[in-house]
């Protein structure tokens, strides 16, 4: 393995992941403190209601937003290496326009869903107005332009600092609510302030970086002029939106299903377990954030990006195995911090823990498929995996309650990795038929992504 780390790209991936991981651990611990304070300061039902409102808002934001950061990396990363600031500026302007439009649409959609179906989601009728107010977060939640700007400009140090902001603000707010004996609406308000504050800080960092490079004009939104000079830009953002929307809506959808079938208290238990697991999977997500920009600069016809993918996946899977063992040992002491009324969360956590290995080990696959211009294959992998997972989740929850939902949690990453691995292996064995990224046949990629867009519509 010593030879692995002699590769400059591998070292760059790990360095960028290290920047993010250095503060993500702190953010995870501080976020856990916020959950503990909220769990102890509210009843199980009220805690579950807060989690249900938060995950519902996150789900709608994830479902409606465009992955503008991926579009920025796709077009601006190669341009930055060539000093083409005009293309970088056009990509950012297009991303700003996408975020503005999708954020407004997502907010209106979420409010409409609560007005007509809020009580069917497990939210009490007197709490629905609070949930509607919480949906005003969606325009900032669905904006990933500032993250894309900082990634392209290699400011992972700023991204790592920003990761502390939201959990720290949330922990401060929940601690004050708990110590002062405040009611559930104040806990929800602390969640709102923390999310808004974290998003504002992220935007401030990206604007400062653009100002330093004299590129603040890039923040003018453009949905018509800017994408005209970016080959297949609209098709790319539609395909990535369809794919990531399916992936991002899994956790919020599972919370809504549990809320409607088992009630808010079950959502609270499930949320405790998934929050701890999400923190454990962060290293893979952090590696992906550094892996994707680096892999897009490499030649897909060579062995190098594929070897990097295998090595990165093995490193992440090994880390995941260690985390699973740690969770099995510490599950009960950690969940005991929330109080005796949440003791079931320890069992759920132990059942769901093996999913970490699958999620972390398979993180390079989407980036490799994007590298070879096969978003359609990734999209269909998500369609198949998500459809089967929804059916399994409902069936197991109906027959085995909250423990069935925990068992279904392992099915989602297993199906996704299996379905996406097949086209990835095909692309590897046929890599010599591909063109280098600087001469790639954009017309062929356009036709393929258009097929994804039409099918998804």
Automatic annotation (TrEMBL):
UniProt-listed Pfam families: Polysacc_synt (PF01943)
Top-rank taxon, per record: Bacteria
UniProt entry keywords in alphabetical sequence: Cell membrane, Membrane, Transmembrane, Transmembrane helix
Protein name listed in UniProt: Oligosaccharide flippase family protein
Coiled coil: none
Keyword field contains Manganese: no
Location of region: Disordered: 437-457
Organism field: Acetobacter conturbans
Subcellular location: Cell membrane
Membrane topology value: Multi-pass membrane protein
Transmembrane segments: 21-41, 47-64, 100-121, 127-150, 171-193, 268-287, 308-330, 342-365, 377-396, 402-422
This protein's record includes keyword Transmembrane: yes
Family annotation (InterPro entries): Poly_Biosynth_Transport, Polysacc_synth
Stored PANTHER family: INNER MEMBRANE PROTEIN YGHQ, PST FAMILY PREDICTED COLANIC ACID TRANSPORTER
């Amino acid at each position: 393995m010593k030879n692995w780390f002699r590769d400059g790209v591998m070292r760059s991936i790990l360095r960028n992941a290290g920047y993010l991981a250095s503060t993500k651990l702190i953010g995870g611990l501080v976020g856990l403190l916020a959950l503990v304070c909220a769990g102890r300061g509210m009843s199980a039902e009220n805690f579950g209601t807060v989690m249900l409102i938060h995950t519902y808002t996150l789900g709608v934001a994830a479902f409606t937003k465009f992955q503008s950061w991926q579009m920025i990396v796709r077009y601006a990363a190669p341009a930055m290496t060539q000093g083409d600031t005009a293309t970088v500026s056009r990509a950012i302007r297009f991303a700003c326009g996408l975020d503005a439009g999708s954020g407004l649409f997502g907010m209106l959609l979420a409010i409409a869903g609560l007005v007509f179906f809020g009580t069917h989601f497990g939210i009490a009728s007197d709490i629905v107005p609070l949930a509607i107010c919480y949906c005003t977060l969606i325009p900032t939640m669905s904006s990933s332009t500032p993250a894309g700007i900082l990634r392209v400009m290699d400011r992972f140090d700023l991204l790592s600092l920003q990761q502390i902001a939201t959990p720290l603000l949330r922990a401060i707010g929940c601690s004050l609510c708990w110590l002062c004996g405040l009611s559930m609406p104040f806990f929800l308000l602390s969640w709102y302030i923390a999310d808004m504050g974290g998003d504002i800080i992220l935007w401030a960092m990206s604007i400062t970086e653009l100002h330093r490079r004299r590129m603040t004009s890039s923040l003018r939104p453009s949905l018509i002029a800017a994408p005209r000079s970016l080959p297949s830009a609209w098709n790319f953002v539609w395909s990535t939106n369809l794919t990531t929307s399916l992936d991002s809506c899994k956790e919020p959808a599972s919370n809504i299903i549990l809320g409607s079938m088992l009630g808010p208290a079950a959502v609270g238990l499930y949320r405790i377990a998934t929050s701890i697991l999400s923190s454990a999977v962060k290293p893979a997500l952090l590696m992906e954030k550094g892996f994707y920009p680096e892999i897009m600069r490499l030649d897909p016809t060579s062995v190098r990006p594929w070897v990097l993918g295998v090595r990165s996946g093995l490193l992440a899977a090994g880390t995941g195995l260690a985390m699973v063992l740690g969770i099995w040992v510490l599950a009960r002491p950690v969940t005991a911090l929330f109080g005796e009324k949440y003791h079931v969360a320890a069992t759920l956590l132990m059942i769901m823990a093996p999913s970490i290995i699958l999620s972390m080990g398979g993180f390079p696959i989407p980036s490799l498929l994007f590298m070879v211009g096969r978003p359609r294959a990734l999209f269909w992998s998500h369609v198949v995996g998500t459809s089967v997972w929804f059916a399994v989740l409902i069936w197991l929850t109906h027959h085995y309650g909250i423990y069935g939902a925990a068992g279904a949690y392992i099915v989602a990453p297993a199906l996704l990795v299996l379905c996406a691995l097949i086209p990835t292996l095909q692309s590897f064995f046929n890599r010599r038929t591909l063109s280098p990224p600087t001469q790639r046949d954009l017309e062929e990629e356009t036709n393929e992504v258009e097929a994804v867009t039409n099918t998804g519509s």
